[in-house]
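From the pipeline queue, job 12 of 40. The input is one protein chain; the requested action is below.

Action: predict structure.
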Amino acid sequence: MNSRLAALAAAAFLASCVESAPDSVLHGVAVVTQNSSTANFASFSTFSIDPMVAVVDQTGSVTNMFQVDGSQLVPTIRTNMEQRGYTFVPWVGNTTPADLQIKMEAHLGSADLYYPGYCGWYPYYYCYPGWTYAGSYNFGTFVVTMGDASGRPQGSQIPLVWTAINYGILSSYYTSGGPPSGTNVNYGRVQEAINRAFAQSPYIQR
């Protein structure tokens, strides 16, 4: 497994071990959703959304973890939830009195690209096969998680009931000269993926 696939696998693991995650994403955006088999979504009535995106940046030699403002994405998630019969509660932190807590994550990585030397194309000539460096590329996965906070005391662990992993969507997230700021994200692309995630999750319904 190359470094790109390893990063994608790590993102899937961090987002509650989605079993049906694809091995690779070659074109466009792949949206994978997973729900808890024991969750009764009709029993929930309220929800809240953390407007901050937790970022895990593995583009460099050291993993950086920080947060960026994701408030531009909140209306998309809110609209999908309200259309399904849930009532929005403003986010005031992990103590927000809502049945469902929705959070956003971004998992960023990079990989080097190599292609085989000309021996692979001219096998009848005597030469030593090798690999030629062809540059590097960035990729990123956007994750939405939904936790069941209903009736749970403050500080207790909140079990996940739904995870949406949007692969290959944050390639425009990167900025030069420092960590990503989120200012150059293609929000339309992210919003489309969020809508797709809800569309393929009809069980989220009051």
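Job complete. The helical segments are 3-14, 74-83, 187-199.
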